[in-house]
Amino acid sequence: MKNVEQAVNEFVDCVKESEIYQKYMQERKRLELFPDLKQRIDEYRKNLYELQNSEDGDKLFDEVEQLEAEGTSLRDNRLVSDFLAAELAFCRMMQEIYTWITAELEFDMTLGKE
Hints:
The protein is mainly α and 114 residues long. The chain has one domain: YheA-like fold, CATH 1.20.1500. The protein contains five helices and no strands. It has helices at 2-17, 19-32, 35-52, 60-75, 78-104. The radius of gyration is 18 Å and the shape is flat. The relative contact order is 0.11.
């Protein structure tokens, strides 16, 4: 297990050194200088997550429209759009890494998805 821990620590260091992660951290730090704006973005992201994972289809259309309008309004701010773009790039990189690892380990992700 010690070898795995060491490898994970080295992997985390590599991720932290990546250009994508550095850009994400730079944009996050810029955003943190504006706590009210960061709070609005955090609320928007929380609502978006909840909507994407919602099973309540009755109100879904109205909520999507409202959230899209809110997102458009927020993205008009360059600071917000830069942060969200950097966050998305980082998330995609992590998804690719996770997919790669699970494929290499031949981990069956289809179980329970019937």
